[in-house]
Design a protein that fits this description.
Layout lengths: L1 H23 L3 E4 L10 E6 L5 E5 L3 E4 L4 E4 L7 H4 L1 E7 L3 E6 L2 E6 L4 E5 L8 E7 L2 E6 L2 E6 L2 E5 L12 E6 L5 E6 L2 E6 L5 E4 L11 E7 L2 E6 L4 E5 L4 E4 L8 E6 L4 E6 L4 E5 L5 E5 L14 E6 L5 E5 L4 E4 L6 E3 L1 E2 L3 E2 L5 E7 L2 E6 L2 E6 L4 E5 L9 E7 L2 E6 L4 E5 L4 E4 L5 H6 L2 E6 L4 E6 L2 E6 L4 E5 L11 E6 L5 E5 L3 E5 L4 E3 L13 E6 L4 E6 L4 E5 L5 E4 L10 E6 L5 E5 L2 E6 L4 E5 L10 E8 L5 E5 L2 E5 L4 H6 L5 E7 L2 E2 L4 E2 L6 E6 L10 E7 L6 E4 L3 E4 L5 E8 L8 E7 L5 H29 L3 H38 L5 H18 L9 H7 L4 H11 L4 H17 L9 H8 L4 H12 L3 H7 L8
Parallel strand pairs: 61-67
Antiparallel strand pairs: 1-28, 2-3, 3-4, 4-5, 6-7, 7-8, 8-9, 10-11, 11-12, 12-13, 14-15, 15-16, 16-17, 18-19, 19-20, 20-21, 22-23, 23-24, 24-25, 26-27, 27-28, 29-58, 30-31, 32-33, 33-34, 34-35, 36-37, 37-38, 38-39, 40-41, 41-42, 42-43, 44-45, 45-46, 46-47, 48-49, 49-50, 50-51, 52-53, 53-54, ...
Length: 940
């Protein structure tokens, strides 16, 4: 009884926490200097019309594309304080403007350089910028400037330029854009754009800094002003009165903005970020630093804040870099029934959805949810005898739950009671393994177990047991039972398959044609609308067959997808096949000619899907069991969401490691790197693209967790690089580059003409000389023969020269790559260094660091790994990390460490990347490996 109460308390705590997480629904990622940020103080954030996010740091302007940070330096400034970026904005024609401690700057996109603007007029700090089309309003330490039609107008609120009221901190326009509102360090001012009239208002408080307005924003006829000591102050533009807003726990307001309609976004220097409702004047959401929350913001000292057009939150800190909330487009949803249940972060192994009634099996227990009555009940140990629920089936008004090591239990939805299945082998159905439970059309329930196959009739209470001894059932565990549209049963065991013939009521294993999958280990069997059968094997590609087995074959789901990664399959009402894998989710149609891939950015919480856990409900909604929750998707929304995807943009193109902006390259600039982004701003590890370099790649190639592709030693020619989201033609971007030959065509033409001229001159010279020297006609007749012979010999020489030149050119090309011997030597140095120094235990190890240690270039090391070893950099390093982990788990000294701690000691940056790399390297999970050597994994 005490144990039951304890488990119920744990579940209650989990549900409460789940409610809180569901309400917040934000996961933040931190970007710091090791990720490429130029400094840890982020003072300004701006998102341009193309989708790039610009960050103003203490010494530089940074551009962030979701993965990489590019720096734009302020040249000619020595003082670091003067470089601090205060504001960023964009005017018409994509002109980017920046204000810092010394003046106004504009980005020259042609050469990617920041250029100082009107330094003779603005040689002091620019605090704020506001754009309105092609008009730029500039708030400075010495008044307001208006840049329009190439002219610059200065406006002073006081004739004394040094007066405090001329120190403008922020600007906004009124509703009809006829007046500017100016937040200064000495009050609030308005400037009429019609007649130039200036008015002022002061917040009367008995504190010196009461009028120090640092920032402002507007919703309707209300201004919200951030102060240095009084929190947020409201100003009624009609009544011309000030009032306080609610307390935010910190009165130092560093940034303020709004959506223009309902919500005010407030950053504080000490108490995080707050969302304030304009209507209710209440804080609706708060983000603050909590050491126990690894997915929250990293500091409460916030200097800049942006809520972008997609609702993502960008937070710039003092000495903590940048935090941004990971964007998800909402295509997939994680099932929750608030406030009582949330499947987020639950590993869902099996489930059944019957309209408003759902039963969900997870590693944390069994959950019953009835949305019609509002009843939610959970079952955990010891009531539930196993925490690994393999299958759930509805049969004759009750739910039959098969477990691993806990037999089969029956849940009555009326009484919500859970009891053991009381028929047949008591030992098996209370302590054995039940892998699948499926009803047929005849009223029987089929049960696949570790001790054979059972057929149970609930009306007659009769149970029939099939084994390899009394039938043609193949030996081993019975993993799958599936009845097709003809009533025929397909039985899959650990060692093969058989078919149940309803006419003879017998199992037959001798009916399969040669080349069928009847001898493989099949885990899932599925029939589509066209009555094709699909078989998912533990090892091997997807196998498809007709019901009569007269046509069958292996079907490739995705060209780069590992054969052993398929987990579940289901068809939607539009004819797409959805395939859940252990590293993602795909949908295919027309034999794979049309396809799509789904990641974290689509709302998929984790990459790993569970075996056989896919289902389509009566409304056409698809449900999938995932290691991080029960997720669902409306297939009809896919095209709508995909149509809103931003086209991919090239962020940089490198030739021999150096950026270039043209389209033509020299013959020796033939090592190319294409960098690009789709502005997903989700998890970098969830990035998924496909690319093709026409002339080099025959088919599209898949690229995961990266946003750049490199090619080395390209011969001369014109190349078109294409990149897109998998299967999404609307997102495709192309770039054409020409690698010029060492000698251009006109060079070859001139060379040929020169050779012809030389030959002609030699022929003429020899002919003239011989004619002058030979006295007799006989000699003259013979001379041309000799002359022709000599000329032919001379004529042959250019061919030799040309051939030698071509050979020299080929040799020249070869010098741009590593030779076989150079690769062997560099490989030897690499292995010796890695095994001796163990640099891989550093989770932040970059290829550049490794190349520097080996005294070579990053391009040479990349060429060695990709072209010579046919291995990516990360796979090479992670192999050593996995080997290090194996050594540690065999050493008793490390037995007290958890898996996460051991992974970090080996150099893995996260538990997810460790599990993925270990499974990829060994074919088993870390837990399975530890058990295989007789150990016990210590969890968190």
């Amino acid at each position: 009884m005490k144990n039951t109460i304890k488990y119920q308390i744990l579940i209650l705590i989990y549900l409460v926490c789940g409610m809180e997480l569901q309400a917040q629904n934000y996961t933040f990622r931190n970007v710091v200097m090791s990720d490429g940020l130029s400094g840890l103080l982020v003072n300004a954030i701006y998102k341009d019309s193309e989708g790039f996010v610009w960050l103003g740091t203490d010494n530089c302007l940074d551009r962030f594309d979701g993965v990489k940070v590019r720096h734009f330096e302020f040249r000619g400034i020595e003082s670091g304080r003067m470089k601090r970026v205060n504001c960023i904005t964009e005017t018409a024609k994509k002109q980017l403007w920046v204000g810092n401690g010394i003046g106004l700057w504009r980005l020259n996109r042609a050469n990617s350089q920041l250029e100082r603007i009107v330094p003779e007029k603005i040689d002091f700090a620019v605090n704020t910028l506001l754009s309105d089309g092609d008009i730029l309003y500039i708030g400075t330490e010495k008044g307001l400037f208006i840049h329009k039609d190439g002219q610059l107008l200065q406006v002073l609120t006081d004739r004394n330029m040094l007066a405090a009221c001329n120190r403008i901190m922020d600007i906004c326009l009124n509703e009809d854009k006829t007046a500017l509102w100016l937040a200064t360090v000495q009050g609030l001012y308005s400037y009429s754009l019609k007649d130039g009239k200036i008015d002022s208002w002061h917040f009367q408080e008995n504190v010196p800094e009461a009028d120090y307005f640092r920032c402002l924003t507007r919703i309707g006829e209300t201004l919200y002003l951030g102060t240095m000591s009084q929190g947020v102050v409201r100003f009624d533009m009609k009544k011309k009165t000030f009032s306080h807003t609610v307390s935010l726990g910190c009165d130092v307001i560093s940034d303020i903005s709004s959506d223009g309609k309902e919500t005010v976004y407030i950053a504080t220097d000490g108490n995080g970020v707050h969302f304030l409702s304009h209507k209710d004047q209440q804080v609706t959401r708060r983000f603050y630093h909590d050491v126990s929350d690894k997915e929250g913001i990293r500091s409460n000292s916030v200097y800049s804040l942006l809520v972008d057009d997609r609702g993502a939150v960008w937070v710039g800190h003092f000495q903590a870099g940048l935090d941004y909330s990971l964007y998800q487009n909402g295509l997939f949803r994680t099932y929750a029934y608030p406030p009582s249940f949330n499947s987020a972060n639950l590993s869902i192994r099996s489930f059944i959805s019957r309209g408003q009634e759902k039963v969900i099996g997870s590693r944390d227990g069994l959950f019953y949810i009835n949305e019609a009555t509002g009843i939610v009940k959970s079952f955990v140990k010891p009531v539930l005898t196993s925490d690994l629920i393999l299958t759930i089936s509805f049969y004759q008004g009750e739910y039959y739950i098969g477990t691993y090591g806990g037999g089969m239990m029956v849940l009555n939805p009326e009484t919500l009671s859970l009891k053991y299945f009381a028929q047949g082998d008591t030992e098996l159905f209370q302590k054995g393994h039940i892998f699948c439970v499926k009803p047929d059309t005849k009223g029987n329930l089929w049960i696949g177990t570790s001790q054979g196959l059972f057929s149970y009739n609930g009306l007659t209470k009769q149970i029939k047991h099939f084994t390899s001894a009394n039938s043609q059932l193949p030996e081993g565990n019975v993993y799958e039972v599936s009845f097709d549209s003809t009533g025929k049963g397909w039985i899959a065991t650990e060692t093969g398959m058989c078919i149940y013939d309803p006419a003879s009521q017998s199992l037959r294993s001798n009916v399969f044609p040669e080349g069928f999958v009847n001898k493989d280990k099949v885990r899932t069997i599925y029939e589509d609308f066209e009555h094709n059968l699909y078989f998912i094997r533990e090892k091997g590609s997807l196998f498809t067959s007709t019901l009569t087995m007269d046509r069958f074959r292996n079907q490739s789901v995705f060209s780069t997808l590992p054969d052993n990664s398929l987990m579940a399959i289901v068809e939607d009402n539009q004819g797409w096949l959805w395939v859940g894998c252990n590293d993602g989710l795909l949908r295919i149609r027309k034999e794979g000619e049309e396809y799509d891939a789904f990641t974290f950015n689509d709302g998929v919480p984790g990459p790993t899907f569970t075996n056989g856990a896919a289902y389509k409900d009566d409304k056409g909604i698809l449900w999938f069991g995932n290691t991080k929750g029960l997720i669902y998707v409306d297939p009809k929304r896919v095209d709508e969401v995909r149509g809103k995807a931003r086209p991919i943009v090239f962020t940089d193109i490198l030739a021999n490691g150096v950026s270039f902006t043209g389209s033509s390259l020299k013959y020796n600039q033939n090592n190319l790197t294409f960098c690009f982004t789709d502005f997903a701003y989700g998890l970098p590890s969830a990035l998924l693209y496909e690319y093709q370099l026409e002339g080099i790649d025959k088919d599209w190639k898949l690229l995961a967790a990266q946003n750049e592709v490199s090619y080395y030693g390209l011969p001369s020619g014109t190349y078109t690089f294409r990149v897109r989201l998998p299967g999404n033609e609307h997102s495709e971007a192309t770039c054409q580059v020409t690698v010029c030959p060492m000698i251009p065509w006109w060079g070859w033409a001139l060379s040929i003409l020169l050779i012809i001229g030389i030959v002609a001159f030699i022929r003429y010279y020899v002919w003239k000389r011989m004619r002058r020297l030979l006295p007799s006609p006989v000699q003259v007749v013979s001379t041309p023969v000799e002359d022709i012979s000599r000329k032919e010999q001379v004529t042959e020489q250019p061919g030799v020269i040309s051939e030698q030149s071509s050979t020299a050119t080929e040799e020249k090309y070869k010098t741009n790559r590593l030779t076989e011997e150079e690769c062997k030597e560099l490989h030897k140095k690499l292995v010796v260094y890695v095994e001796k120094e163990k640099p891989y235990i550093n989770p932040d190890l970059k290829m550049g660091d490794l190349a520097s240690a080996l005294d070579t270039s990053s391009h040479s090391l990349s060429y060695l790994l990709n072209q010579y070893l046919n291995q990516s950099y990360y796979d090479f390093i992670n192999e050593y990390r996995v080997t290090q982990f194996k050594k540690m788990v065999e050493d008793s000294h490390y037995s007290r460490y958890t898996l996460t701690a051991l992974a970090e000691l080996c150099g893995f940056s996260s538990r997810a990347s460790f599990f993925r790399s270990f499974k990829k390297s060994t074919g088993v999970t870390p837990n399975e490996y530890i058990r295989s050597i007789g150990g016990t994994a210590k969890e968190e």
